[in-house]
Amino acid sequence: MSQPIETFRGVAHPWLCDVFGHLNTRHQMAMFDDAGFHFLHAIGPAAEAMRASRTGWADVRIEVDLVDEVPLGGLVVIRSELIKLGRTSITYRHSMHSADDDRVHSRVQMITVHFDLEARKAIALPAETLAAGERFVAPPAS
């Protein structure tokens, strides 16, 4: 079992904050989305191969836990870990932490399916993704 991997670093710029001076939830989700692209790239297949085969990823479930506000100017780091590999889907978790003291600001758990862009339906994960993903599977949450 491996440790979570870093998939994003960012700043709570003023234009990303709400009227209370905190990183707005919609912008946290954009950061998680960017982290997701990096995480999916890490387990494969590569984006170029997916474009060539007309396959992609489709998020089908997202659970968000907002733990602690990110203040204006806060530096954040997102780390991601694989929870489960299915036949057509992966379940993974992103955790947004303060770059200063590593406290958790928010967590997102997602289920994403491997998707045939022509047929518009879920398809089996490639064997190489299943093999590569095994090294990322996280231990159960306590």
Describe this entry's structure for a reader:
- It is built from three helices and six strands.
- It is of the alpha+beta class and 142 residues long.
- It has a single domain (5-134), classed as Thiol Ester Dehydrase, Chain A.
- The chain starts with a strand and ends in a 9-residue tail after the last helix.
> CATH homologous superfamily, by name?
Hotdog Thioesterase
The dominant shape is: elongated
The number of distinct helices, counting runs of at least 4 residues, comes to 3
How many structural domains are formed by the residues?
1
Distance between the termini: 15 Å
CATH topology: Thiol Ester Dehydrase, Chain A
- The name of the CATH architecture is Roll
Proportion of helical residues: 10-25%
Radius of gyration: 16 Å
Strand count, sense and barrel status of the largest sheet are:
6 strands, antiparallel
Detail the topology: elements first, then pairings:
Layout: E1 5-11, H1 25-43, H2 47-53, E2 55-66, E3 75-85, E4 89-98, E5 104-116, E6 121-122, H3 127-133
Antiparallel strand pairs: 1-3, 2-5, 3-4, 4-5, 5-6
Concise structural overview:
The chain is α+β, with helices and mostly antiparallel strands and 142 residues long. The chain has three helices and six strands; from the N terminus they run βααβββββα. Strands 1, 2, 3, 4, 5 and 6 form a six-stranded antiparallel β-sheet that branches.
